[in-house]
Write a structure and sequence with these properties.
Blueprint lengths: L1 E9 L2 E11 L6 E5 L7 E8 L3 E8 L2 E8 L4 E3 L18 E2 L5 E7 L2 E7 L5 E7 L3 E8 L2 E7 L5 E6 L2
Length: 163
């Protein structure tokens, strides 16, 4: 799976729309799948997949967005996400897969960090924590979430918490 966006040109308008490209191998062929969004711009930043589906995260009109894409290319918007502002140019950390099949990711909003999870059943949870900067990488070990944050000076800090 490749994630990103497409530029759609129409008479008098330009729309940036989130999309993914799926293929059975890296060599292709690839099929583009447009991700539904009511607002522009939208962009897919990263994805994580398990045996049944992928969770794609990104932004739509400056807010956190997530989509579920199954192996057949069927797409649905993940409902119930927290209303988190995601400004242009901010990259979201790649999502991770927990042992129970839950997909999770980390995003910062001001001084707060959010560990957002999407359960296989579709349920969404949001665990807030004090973020010492912008999250740039995350990993999950049994009972511990590890997040690398970068502050405004470019220095990295390792932050741990229980999810």
């Amino acid at each position: 799976m490749i994630v990103g966006s497409t530029t759609q040109l129409a008479a008098g308008s330009v729309r940036l729309a989130a999309a993914v490209w799926l293929g059975s191998s890296v060599a292709g062929p690839l099929q583009r799948i447009d991700l539904p969004s009511k607002a522009s711009p939208s962009e897919a930043h990263s994805a994580v997949c398990d045996a049944t589906h992928c969770t794609v995260i990104g932004q739509s009109a400056g807010h956190l967005a997530a989509w579920s894409v199954d192996a057949d290319g069927e797409v649905s918007v993940v409902p119930g996400l927290p209303a988190i502002a995601v400004s242009d140019g901010v990259r979201l950390t790649p999502p991770i897969v927990e042992a129970d099949g839950t997909h999770g990711f980390v995003v910062a909003e001001g001084a707060d960090g959010h560990f957002v999870t999407v359960a296989p059943s579709g349920g969404v949870s949001d665990r807030r924590y004090r973020a010492p900067g912008v999250p740039v990488s995350a990993a999950l070990a049994p009972a511990t979430m590890w997040v690398v944050h970068q502050n405004g000076d470019g220095h990295n800090t390792l932050h741990t918490f229980e999810p």
